[in-house]
Specification:
elongated, two-stranded antiparallel sheet, mainly alpha
Length: about 290
């Protein structure tokens, strides 16, 4: 609040009125002669030390009663403890705050589930946008591609190639057999070049049908907290390496990459390159 003014007894009434209106304006210029030779602002009384101590104690009492202290929040700047110990202290303090954070996690899960449902039901992305995303990232599901290939094959069957028995006929010369094989391969290549665009378009149509089908499936959203302290990430990776040394081959290389301190984009790139270089093995007993 603006404090008052202390002025002399012999004052100018007009100047007094101006002081009441513009006295709180920053940079106001006042002449002492207009106020009886004296004009000074009355400084308000400062807060006592007792009030300041009560304010500081109230802040500490809030942290003590609620359990949300600096150690639990991980903002204890004076402490030099490792991220591993800080995370352990935070987990211990979360016992007091579990009901509050459980409600918060439930609200997050509900919010993200609703967001997914809005995308799923509301047609947030147009077919052209979906088509562009699929083309840029090559995100077509292989199962949809195979289903589309089977449907196209029923409508337009591939050309029939000569059987090995036909090529082994005694009246067929080797040069003629090679010519027949080359002709069959050319026909098959032309057929695949013709049907591949049709297969991709049909796979996209199947994708749009799945996106528009609300009974096709439901999605759940899980909110997880990843460790943010570098020392904790290093400790987790060290434990993984110890397990890998004790049980060779038990941990896939992608797990080491995923729990490393590399940027997420680099992790995805390395895992993708690893999957391309070392594809998943064919299950035992699967048809060749």
């Amino acid at each position: 609040a603006n404090a008052g003014w202390r002025i002399g007894s012999k004052l100018n009434r007009v100047a007094l009125k101006l002081l009441r209106v513009f006295g709180a304006t920053p940079g106001v210029v006042l002449a002492e002669d207009d106020f009886g030779g004296k004009v000074e602002r009355i400084e308000p009384a400062e807060l006592s030390q007792g009030h300041l101590m009560m304010a500081d104690k109230s802040a500490e009492d809030i942290k003590t009663i609620s359990g949300v202290n600096n150690a639990v929040m991980g903002i204890d700047s004076e402490s030099q403890e490792s991220g591993r110990l800080a995370a352990q202290r935070t987990r211990q303090g979360m016992v007091t705050l579990e009901p509050i954070f459980d409600n918060f996690d439930s609200a997050l899960e509900l919010f993200h589930t609703t967001s997914v449902e809005l995308v799923f039901r509301g047609g947030l992305y147009t077919p052209d946008e979906v088509r562009q995303i699929v083309d840029d990232e090559d995100l077509l599901d292989p199962e949809l591609v195979e289903q589309a290939r089977a449907e196209i094959a029923e409508l337009a069957p591939p050309p029939t190639a000569a059987s090995p028995m036909d090529l082994a006929a005694p009246d067929l010369l080797p040069q003629q057999a090679q010519a027949v094989m080359a002709h069959d391969q050319q026909q098959l290549a032309e057929y695949e070049a013709m049907v591949e665009p049709l297969i991709r378009e049909r796979a996209l149509d199947l994708l749009f049908e799945q996106m528009g089908n609300v009974d096709a499936g439901r999605y759940s959203t899980t909110v997880l907290k990843s460790p943010s302290a570098p020392t904790e990430r290093m400790a987790n990776l060290a434990e993984l390496e110890a397990i890998g040394e004790r049980y060779p081959g038990a941990i896939p290389p992608a797990v080491y990459i995923r729990h490393s301190g590399l940027p997420q984009a680099m992790k995805d790139e390395l895992i993708g390159a690893l999957q391309t270089t070392n594809p998943a093995p064919t299950p035992t007993g699967a048809a060749a």
